[in-house]
Amino acid sequence: MAAFVVSPSQLHRVLLLSWFLCAAGALGFLPRHVAAAKVGAGSYVTVSAASLAASGTTCDDPGPAIAPRQLINGTSAVLRLAHRHGPCAPSRSSVQAGPPFADVLRADQRRAEYIQRRVSGARGNLKLTASSRPATVPATMGYSIGTLQYVVTVSLGTPGVPQTVELDTGSDVSWVQCKPCAPPACYSQKDPLFDPAGSSTYSAVPCAADACLELEIFGEGCSSSQCRYVVSYGDGSNTTGVYGSDTLTLSPGNTLSPFLFGCGYAQTGLFAGIDGLLGLGRQSMSLKSQAAGAYGGVFSYCLPPKETSTGYLTLGAPSSAAGFATTALLTAWNAPTFYMVMLTGISVGGQAVGGVPTSVFAGGTVVDTGTVVTRLPPTAYAALRSTFRAAMARYGYPSAPPIGILDTCYDFSRYDAVTLPTVALVFGGGATLALEAPGILSSGCLAFAPNTGDGDAAILGNVQQRSVAVRFDGSSVGFMPGAC
């Protein structure tokens, strides 16, 4: 499908809201859509109503992970990425059906509130650097984020044992449930528990090892000279056990050894159906950091556009940001795990949304795979909602009741095709991300919600990231629409 480029005049109007002025020729992307989309003058897009449906029972692409050719250069490992509750997820992870969307939104709100609490107070403390100061948080227990959505399958140990784990850019400690562990200490999963005694390459991390000391807030002392870890998540879930080392096989021919991870012997919360978690945060214990020597510290992912399709996670490629709209990577000193950027403006129908002072974006924006819908400062959200509703009014679509935190909903049940105004997000330096149609609406509702206050951290959720290749390196974040 063809890419659409924002015209210089449209881009200039959008960038008037930006803190970071850029040259008039800056590049942006307009949507590429499934189901024969039609774009009129970069302002509206028409898609089939069926293409906006999130659910299905058949996987559209059940094969191995395949990233676009332009994303593969040099040494890389590509993993197949699927929605946790969709038909493309490995059958062993599908212990239970996905929760109702209203329940997803309630859990999503807990996650968003937790992120905002962590980043609060960071205004004025964002910096353009890949390094970060230690997090200033209570040292009694490690905290991270719960309520995730996407899974990959890796292999752990020698011989390798398949493990289906959730992907999280907001966490650093990776872990799986380990044998021996009986309910209720360990929750039910279809895969056998990982057995460290059955792996010839497993070893527990000694208490005096540097790796144990680097756990910092995620450390829980020692037991029988073995380092222990603990992670408690924002939704109330937690995991604790022994911090260990073993061989991690990412894809055929791509192994990481030693790989440090938590061998969980006591878990509670919302993990049922998965084998553990793969942390891709920015701290030393994350997969991204542990794999930096082999893959250069660069990784990218493409979240599938719907639950019936697959995306990919790629470590080590693309090594170049060519083809991506890039913006500077920022760090909140008190939440260094998070990948942060600066949102500077929003456009609807190719026109900048007015009435939004740039100061409302001062808290930065967390790019997060686990938050579902994007959170905006209240002033920015109100302006987006008003502009979007006005643009939709000309088509006369009947309104529908709100769903949880989503208050701008439509009933498309009588329509074969739906016309939407385009929506684009503008980041520092002029990087423009034009959203796919499924990134504008979710379950018939505008997929945005307000955060806690103007100037507090915004969150770029996974709905808006779907079908977009998102690339991270030590200094920038890049976006390439239509990549999966």
Automatic annotation (TrEMBL):
Segments passing through the bilayer: none
Gene Ontology MF, one: aspartic-type endopeptidase activity
Source superkingdom: Eukaryota
Record's signal peptide: 1-26
Domain spans labelled Peptidase A1: 150-483
Stored Pfam families: TAXi_C, TAXi_N
InterPro entries for this protein: Aspartic_peptidase_A1 (IPR001461), PEPTIDASE_A1 (IPR033121), Peptidase_aspartic_dom_sf (IPR021109), TAXi_C (IPR032799), TAXi_N (IPR032861)
Record flagged with keyword Glycoprotein: no
Alphabetical keyword list: Aspartyl protease, Disulfide bond, Hydrolase, Protease, Signal
Record-annotated active site: 168, 368
Name of the featured protein: Peptidase A1 domain-containing protein
Species name: Lolium multiflorum
Taxonomic classification: Eukaryota, Viridiplantae, Streptophyta, Embryophyta, Tracheophyta
